[in-house]
């Protein structure tokens, strides 16, 4: 994604209607158009990919940006956080390492985008590998835990009032490329963004397309999460989502009313 920048050389001083005025040149004016979005040729047909979308959200990032002299803290935090997040995603996918390469538990993401107060991550899950899909879901949960236990204590020694919580929502669906594949759209992205904001939770995933009933799914899916029915704004009133049992048990009664039994 590009930005529109104007330099002093993009202005001219001209006399207009007997008045000296500072004018933006016609060339600089016309430069403000869709190519600055950096999406490439927008008439290209979108390529469909079966994906799992994860939206990681930094809870408290807005207040963090409001501190005095944010330009001295925000860049430091973002550099540390984004480096850490990419390393965590990479390492969570490792099953075994060898001199010749790395054996993975699932694919590495094919797209990552900073959203301003969080990160969108997309994995290609078109291969028929249920374990890989479940491993991606577990990766989202593990990263949230490691943020609280490892990253937050570390970064709090370097910046003031760092965001204390990393939230994560995941959903599976079809995403479509835009232009030359520089961005993507899809209902699963919207779903992931919505459910990471669910009250009383820090982690949730949409039940659609994630097989948690497999006997080999593991303890996390069999006893660590529970499926509930909720209304998701702009998507549906009876969406099945999985949240942590521990967070449901700790939820206040008002929030708990939103999570209906199936």
Short synopsis of the structure:
With 262 residues, the protein is α+β, with helices and mostly antiparallel strands.
How would you sum up this structure, described in words?
With 262 residues, the chain is α+β, with helices and mostly antiparallel strands. The chain has 8 helices and 12 strands. Strands 3, 6, 7, 8, 9, 10, 11 and 12 form an 8-stranded mixed beta sheet that branches. A hairpin with a 2-residue loop joins β4 and β5 (101-104). α3 packs antiparallel against α4 (130-155).
Describe how the helices and strands are arranged.
Elements: E1 11-16, E2 19-24, H1 26-30, E3 48-59, H2 61-65, H3 74-92, E4 94-98, E5 101-104, E6 111-114, E7 118-124, H4 130-155, E8 165-178, E9 183-185, H5 187-195, E10 203-206, H6 219-224, E11 225-232, E12 236-244, H7 245-250, H8 253-256
Parallel strand pairs: 8-10
Antiparallel strand pairs: 1-2, 3-7, 3-8, 4-5, 6-7, 8-9, 10-12, 11-12
């Amino acid at each position: 994604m590009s930005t529109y920048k104007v330099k002093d050389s993009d202005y001219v001083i001209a006399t207009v209607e007997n008045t000296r005025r500072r004018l933006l040149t016609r060339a600089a004016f016309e430069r403000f158009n869709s190519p600055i979005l950096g999406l490439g040729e927008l008439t290209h047909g979108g390529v469909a990919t079966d994906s799992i979308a994860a939206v990681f959200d930094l809870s408290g990032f807005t207040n963090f940006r409001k501190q005095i002299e944010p330009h001295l803290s925000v860049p430091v935090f973002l550099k540390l956080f984004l480096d850490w997040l990419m390393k965590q995603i990479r390492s969570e996918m490792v099953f075994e390492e060898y001199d010749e390469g790395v054996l993975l538990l699932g694919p590495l993401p094919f797209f990552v985008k900073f959203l301003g107060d969080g990160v969108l991550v997309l994995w290609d899950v078109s291969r028929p590998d249920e374990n890989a899909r479940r491993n991606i879901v577990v990766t989202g949960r593990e990263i949230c835990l490691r943020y609280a236990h490892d990253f937050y204590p570390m970064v709090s020694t370097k910046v003031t009032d760092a965001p204390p919580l990393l939230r994560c929502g995941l959903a599976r669906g079809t995403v479509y490329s835009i232009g030359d594949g520089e961005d993507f759209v899809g209902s699963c992205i919207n779903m992931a963004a919505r459910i990471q904001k669910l009250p009383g939770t820090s982690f949730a995933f949409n039940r659609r397309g994630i097989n948690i009933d497999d006997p080999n799914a593991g303890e996390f899916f069999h006893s660590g999460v529970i499926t509930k029915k909720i209304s998701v704004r702009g998507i549906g009133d009876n969406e099945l989502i999985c949240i942590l049992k521990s967070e449901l048990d700790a939820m206040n009664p008002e929030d708990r009313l939103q999570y209906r039994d199936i």
